[in-house]
Amino acid sequence: MIALDLTEKRFGPTQVLGALRLEVARGEVLGIEGPSGTGKSTLLRILAGVDTRFEGKMQAPSRRAMVFQEPVLMPWRRVIDNLTIPTGASEDEAEHWLCRVGLSGYGAHWPGQLSLGQARRVGLARAFASRPELLILDEPFVSLDAERVDDLLELTARLISETQPAVVLASHAVRELDRLATRRAVLAGRPARLTAL
Ligand SMILES: Nc1ncnc2c1ncn2[C@@H]1O[C@H](COP(=O)(O)OP(=O)(O)OP(=O)(O)O)[C@@H](O)[C@H]1O
Questions:
Q1: 13 CA to centre of ligand 1 in angstroms
Q2: Cα torsion 24, 26, 28, 32: sign
Q3: Fewer beta carbons under 10 A from the terminal one: N or C of the chain?
């Protein structure tokens, strides 16, 4: 379970996020939509623990994983190491997750040998390999063609349903929100506030 009671988040003189509260229990998927530049990624980075410079209180589980808009793999490490090093998973566990995302046998590949869709799958495998209690998805399917998005959506839905983390998903895509979100909210305004739908 994640609980955030935010007073404000600013970058220097600019207040990006206003007061907002958010709670997500395990098994729930909170889908956040909102205009570009309102602060969705900023909010997600706070929830992920990447940005700790905010006013307010947060109760978050220790095992958190984030899937970014870009897969951000270490290009100088093989795929298998991209799973084991950041997560502490064993090679067997990493192979298991590669297999789950349809990349069985890709462990010895270099990230530069992967298509964007495959790199996204590795990003997803890496997130699940850390056995997250909180999973944060920041536009994880952006710039893939429709068929690939559908495949990845189904896969993500299956893995979430099996592992039951609390999930926060930011997306502009109605299809993704419709398929994954169990609850929806809109982030809008300047400073931005969260309104449940
Ligand atoms: N490190 C930073 N320093 C200063 N301003 C920042 C920083 N990061 C984000 N911002 C500003 O905060 C605002 C919110 O940015 P953010 O990336 O969170 O928006 P977003 O809703 O995720 O946008 P998009 O949907 O386009 O990804 C923007 O005005 C952006 O310019």
A1: 14
A2: positive
A3: C
